[in-house]
Design a protein that fits this description.
Blueprint (H helix, E strand, L loop, with lengths): L40 E8 L2 E8 L4 E10 L2 E2 L1 H5 L4 H20 L21
Antiparallel strand pairs: 1-2, 2-3, 3-4
């Protein structure tokens, strides 16, 4: 992510992790998530020279996601830069997600099922 009006600024990669033993939450995918899983896991980070590698691993040590960021002569790799999205788009998605979450959680919940009888009549066979 980086601001649309600052195309030469350094992008920021957001990594959210936290499935190391606490309760898990449902994950909703969107265009800004490279990978989204609701499972217990851990991450392994390796930094060497101009390269950063992050591995996301299940508790049995099997790999389920990897991120690699490489610089060449102090500049970010072109493949990485091709994936950069405008920060404003993510902000908009998050704003609507928060609003919907708040709205849904504020709705009154009734434990009784609602039954409605609907009768449809057709005028096709009438003259």
């Amino acid at each position: 992510m980086r601001p649309a009006q600052e195309p030469e600024s350094w992008p920021v990669t957001y990594i959210t992790t936290g499935g190391a033993g606490a309760g898990l939450y449902d994950v909703v995918s969107n265009q800004f998530l490279a990978e989204a899983k609701s499972l217990n896991h851990f991450i392994q980070v390796k930094i060497s020279g101009d390269s950063l590698s992050l591995s996301a691993r299940k508790m049995d040590d099997s790999l389920f996601d990897i991120l690699k960021i490489v610089k060449h002569n102090g500049k970010l790799d072109k493949q990485y830069l091709a994936k950069v999205e405008p920060q404003e788009q993510l902000n908009l998605v998050n704003m609507f997600a928060r609003a919907l979450t708040f709205s849904i959680s504020a709705l009154p919940v009734d434990s009784r099922p609602l039954k409605k009888n609907i009768h449809l009549e057709s005028d096709f066979n009438k003259e």
